């Protein structure tokens, strides 16, 4: 496939993917960060991107789908969510496949800079494919060294919603979770549908693979493979402390993150781990 990058916001390089049916996405090489996704036949972006997001090589982009690796959140000695989301990736390929879907493959390998904070040999790949109403994002982690290492990771997906107060997450009934807002562990989701009525930050452990985000006039099906956990996050009133989120932005977003967060993944030398998340707009 032929491909080229263009200059995006802040002069950061990005690639624009367009499927034969008109489905469209934009990915910045900074962080392999998918910032926009418009399903075929629609004009509405289904990913939330903050109007105040910084597009700077030293900062993380607020919104879209950040890649968290090799550390999720502050669960370790590295900066929040690790270094992958603020590192320049290589674009290996991009364009249209024979079936008309749009595809891209981005790569990141260990370097002198990454080994200063995380002394392991690795290769990280992110594959993006989109067509019609769906978007598939897969993350591949390979241990290119000989010694075992452990990591946590996530696709920190920001979904754009019309009104988070009128939005529910279906499919988590009965699941166990850690509540980071209340500082509680091993809670149980009693309600079939999760309603967002304030700040929420939960790690659902061994979560169901299939979920649905329901709004009054539309929905989003979410299917995860390989990622054992699901993180649900909305800053609620704490949004005021986020300088790169515009006022009221928290009312138009909901993060449903495919994650390996509750327990680290251990990977032997030469081994590869894969996790993916598919979004289907309805």
Helix and strand arrangement:
Blueprint: E1 6-7, E2 13-18, E3 24-28, E4 33-38, E5 67-68, E6 90-96, E7 102-109, H1 112-117, E8 122-131, E9 134-143, E10 149-155, E11 158-160, E12 168-170, E13 176-179, E14 184-188, E15 193-195, E16 200-205, E17 210-214, E18 219-225, E19 229-234, E20 253-267, E21 272-281
Give the CATH architecture. Distorted Sandwich
Described by the principal axes of the CA atoms, the overall outline is globular
**Beta-strand level of the residues, as a percent range?**
over 45%
- Span of the ends, CA to CA: 29 Å
Briefly, what CATH class? Mainly Beta
**What is the domain total for the residues?**
1
**Strand order, biggest sheet?**
6-7-8-9-21-18-17-12-15
Q: Averaged pLDDT, please?
A: 96
Gyration radius (Cα, Å) is: 18 Å
| Succession of helices and strands | EEEEEEEHEEEEEEEEEEEEEE
What structural class should be given to the helix and strand makeup? mainly beta
Helix content: under 10%
Biggest sheet statistics = 9 strands, antiparallel
Please, how many helices? 1
The low-pLDDT segments are none
Could you say what the CATH topology is called?
A: Beta-galactosidase, Chain A, domain 5
Counting DSSP E segments of at least 2 residues, the number of strands comes to 21
Task: Describe the overall structure.
- The chain has 282 residues and is an all-beta fold.
- It has one domain: Beta-galactosidase, Chain A, domain 5, CATH 2.70.98.
- It has one helix spanning 112-117; strands spanning 6-7, 13-18, 24-28, 33-38, 67-68, 90-96, 102-109, 122-131, 134-143, 149-155, 158-160, 168-170, 176-179, 184-188, 193-195, 200-205, 210-214, 219-225, 229-234, 253-267, 272-281.
- The protein starts with 5 loop residues before the first strand and ends with a strand.
- The relative contact order is 0.17.
């Amino acid at each position: 496939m032929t491909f080229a990058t263009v200059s995006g916001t802040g002069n950061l390089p990005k690639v624009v993917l367009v499927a034969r049916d008109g489905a469209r996405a934009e990915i910045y090489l900074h962080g392999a960060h998918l910032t926009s996704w418009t399903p075929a036949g629609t004009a509405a972006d289904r990913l939330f991107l903050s109007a105040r997001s910084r597009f700077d090589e030293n900062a993380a982009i607020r919104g879209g789908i950040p890649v968290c690796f090799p550390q999720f959140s502050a669960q370790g000695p590295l900066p929040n969510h690790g270094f992958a989301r603020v590192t320049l990736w290589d674009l290996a390929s991009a364009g249209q496949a024979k079936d008309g879907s749009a595809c891209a493959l981005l790569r990141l390998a260990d370097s002198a800079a990454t080994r200063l904070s995380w002394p392991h040999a690795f290769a990280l790949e992110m594959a993006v494919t989109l067509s019609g109403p769906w978007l598939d994002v897969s993350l591949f982690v390979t241990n290119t060294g000989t010694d075992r290492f452990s990591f946590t990771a996530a696709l920190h997906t920001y979904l754009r919603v019309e009104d988070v107060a009128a939005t529910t997450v279906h499919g988590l009934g009965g699941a166990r979770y850690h509540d980071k807002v209340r500082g509680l562990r091993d809670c149980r989701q009693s309600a079939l549908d999760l309603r967002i009525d304030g700040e929420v930050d939960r790690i659902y452990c061994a979560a169901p693979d299939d979920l649905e985000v329901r709004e009054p006039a539309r929905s989003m099906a979410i299917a995860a493979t390989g990622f054992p956990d699901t993180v649900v996050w909305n800053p609620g009133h704490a949004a005021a402390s986020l300088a790169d989120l515009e006022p009221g932005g928290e009312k138009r977003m909901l993060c449903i993150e495919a994650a390996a967060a509750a327990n680290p993944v251990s990977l032997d030398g030469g081994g590869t781990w894969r996790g993916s998340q598919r979004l289907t707009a309805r």
